[in-house]
Design brief:
single chain; alpha/beta; Rossmann fold; 6-stranded parallel beta sheet; binds adenosine monophosphate
């Protein structure tokens, strides 16, 4: 099936062809005609499925098809709310690329100066891509008017809820006109997402392209058991032996990301770190260097990496497993995209055995385990509890709000962490037996 059957106008088809896309992805195939028809949409699609074009293309067509009334010229007509600044930048770039700059657009996000954003908003963009916190800051300071929004997109809604943005989102909804088209994209559907959808969508069409919590089939997953103190050495070894050429590497904390980046530099591996303590220009530079191949390993925390669009990323490395099993699925969704095969490599130490079990329970099958020769784990080393910290890789206000205050997760919306049952803390990962669980198919690579 080609794009031309979806009802898109020639200029958009040209933009798509210029990107080298020949066929629409499943979410594009299903969503584009529905959005063009003006329907509200509840779409289950994770990053890597082509979801951005699935809402941007029909949105551009609808905006172009209806002229703005004279008194509404230079008012914001479409609002796309995303969880992170990186995603805001990327989605806005897609708007420009697909729209061939025919409509004015801008991205609004925290961590950078307010003044420049006020000026671009004054110039009257028709499309705004924004993170929730900074958008509300603008609204409170009356530097933005959302009273003419015709189309609203919530992108990666599950991530926004995980990050504690539900109250911000509700505040944003209250600023919009009642009559509008709403599109909600989410990789997973919790009770909270469904409640949000029920409140904001009007008789929505629904599209589901990724089976719930199932990583793409294009990703080969492997666990390399290793001692906690030898993970960095093993990662350097995998790079030196060309088992990994370029990879996005996840750590749990900002501190861990920095420390690892420094150590890998000492090993002679070109590395950059990307997390919430880095300035926006530093992050953009790191991403650009990585995309250009100047950097071999890009070390990222969970939140900083969300929504990163890096095409043809061959490897994702979990230097540390995530505290929330669902995040594993999101992490490995960074590879195996748009038809390109990818590897997700997890370096797992004895402390992480319970987390691994939880991930495998979520996946519904064990991840093949392969011991790398020379890095056999010392089975006499007992497990240590992993300190439960969020890592806070999030930028500025976008940090997950884990205690008190506005938007603090409730017992219902708080993601379940390892070592907790039914939301009540147990002595964390210390409950592990201190022994490796032997996994089916475990073998040693020589
Ligand atoms: P997204 O899920 O929107 O983050 O998109 C994932 C990646 O797929 C991006 O790098 C897009 O450029 C790419 N992409 C989107 N649509 C298509 C398509 N129809 N054919 C091939 N690649 C696509």
């Amino acid at each position: 099936m080609s794009f031309s059957t979806l009802g898109l106008r020639p200029e958009l088809l040209r933009a798509v062809a210029a990107q080298g896309y020949t066929d629409p992805t499943p979410v594009q195939r299903e969503a584009i005609p529905l959005v063009l028809a003006g329907r509200d949409l509840l779409a289950g699609a994770q990053t890597g499925t082509g979801k951005t074009a699935a809402f941007v293309l029909p949105m551009l067509q609808r905006l172009a098809a209806t002229a703005q009334p004279q008194d509404q010229r230079r008012r914001i007509r479409a609002l796309i709310v995303v969880p992170t600044r990186e995603l805001a930048i990327q989605v806005e770039e897609s708007v420009r690329v697909y729209g061939a700059n025919a409509l004015r657009s801008t991205a609004i996000y925290g961590g950078v100066g307010f003044g420049g954003q006020i000026n671009t908003v004054r110039r009257g963009p028709e499309i705004v891509v924004a993170t929730p916190g900074r958008l509300l800051d603008h609204s409170r300071q009356r530097t933005i008017d959302l009273g003419a929004v015709e189309i609203l997109v919530l992108d990666e809604a599950d991530r926004m809820l995980d990050m504690g943005f539900i109250r911000d989102i509700r505040s944003i909804l209250a600023l919009l006109p009642a009559r509008r088209q709403n599109l909600l994209f989410s990789a997973t559907f919790s009770k909270e997402i469904r409640a949000l959808a029920e409140g904001m969508l009007d008789r929505p069409a629904s599209v589901q392209v990724t089976p719930r919590n199932t990583p793409t089939d294009l990703v080969r997953q492997v666990v390399h058991p290793v001692d906690r103190g030898r993970k960095r050495e093993l990662l350097s070894h995998l790079v030196r032996t060309h088992a990994i050429d370029q990879a996005l590497v996840f750590t749990r904390t900002k501190h861990g990301a920095n420390k690892l980046a420094e150590q890998l530099w000492q090993d002679g591996i070109a590395t950059a770190a990307i997390h919430g303590n880095k300035s926006q220009p530093q992050r953009i530079r790191a991403l650009a260097d990585f995309k250009a191949g100047k950097v071999t390993l890009l070390i990222a925390t969970e939140v900083a990496a969300r929504g990163l669009d890096i095409e043809q990323l061959p490897h994702v490395v979990n230097f540390e497993l995530p505290m929330v099993a669902n995040d594993y699925v999101h992490r490995i969704g960074r590879t195996g995209r748009a038809g390109v095969e990818g590897d997700a490599i997890s370096l797992v130490c004895v402390d992480e055995a319970p987390m691994l079990r939880e991930i495998e329970r979520l996946l519904g099958s064990p991840i093949p385990s392969e011991v790398i020769a020379g890095f056999e784990p010392d089975r006499s080393i007992p497990a240590q509890p992993i300190r439960i910290r969020t890592g806070g890789g999030g930028p500025g206000r976008q940090r997950p709000r884990t205690s008190g205050g506005r938007g603090a997760p409730t017992s219902q919306n708080r993601p379940r962490r390892f070592g907790q049952r039914g939301g009540r803390p147990t002595p964390a990962a210390a409950t592990t037996s201190g022994r490796w669980v032997s996994l089916p198919g475990e073998r040693t690579r020589r």
